[in-house]
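Changelog note: in this version the structure field was regenerated for every chain. One regenerated record is shown below for reference.
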Amino acid sequence: MIANFLIGLREGLEATIMVSILVAFLVKTGRRDRLGAVRWGVALAVVLPVSVAVALAVAAKALTFEAQELLGGTLSIVAVAFVTWMVFWMRRAGRSLATDLTDRMRTAVGVSGFAVALTAFLAVGREGLETVFFVWAAGQATGQTWQPLVGALLGLAVAVALGWALYRQALKIDLRRFFAWTGAALVVVAGGVLAYGVHDLQEAGVLPGLHALAFDVSTQVPPSSWYGALLKGVLNFSPATTWAQAVAWTAYVVPVLALYLRPRRRPAAPAATRPLRSVSA
């Protein structure tokens, strides 16, 4: 539930900030007549992930056990890919996000209301799809049905409240630091989702080694204990971990976290121009 709260908070805050930037641009440029198009774009962007979530739930119930595990494993990998791309994109583009969005909106306003709605839809819809895939995969990993959804909804609710407060300038947050720390945490959480996705593929018969355990600490960390449930819910930790899961987790988390936490390279200062020396004959 905590991990899903985190993904809902981060994705929701990203989407809310994007909408705030678009709305602020339209208000400052005197194009309030386009605000309705933004509302339509956001509404459709909300409908899209909800529809995908319903389709996934219906499809999962109609599949055999092996097919369910195959679907769960595949979507876990897709979710990890989405989250990885998202945290690195935000790390790179966070500083220029407002400029990029306003440039797109400036172009869209000059075209049509549909272009404005499409800009808002694309800005928010991507965050919604990332949230759905990640929450669905995390729910499959923890074996829970409603707690991951509740956690994500709470995160989204808090994100909307924070976004509104930021827009009204009633609250100030160091967004760069917030996204940096939550991004690092999501890399670790995504490693757990990836490991469980590998386990799903093993149960589906796609990958071998289902019974080849790297370690089994079920006695020390009983799954029914509060700390076992906490580790499962936050990190998708499995007391009985196969070698394939352990290798996948390590091969993902270690290099990705190292790349994410590496210091940013500052642009090199232009070299001072040296005066040309006269060459005597």
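Spot check on this record: The CA atoms of residues 222 and 234 lie 16 Å apart. The longest strand covers residues 213-216.
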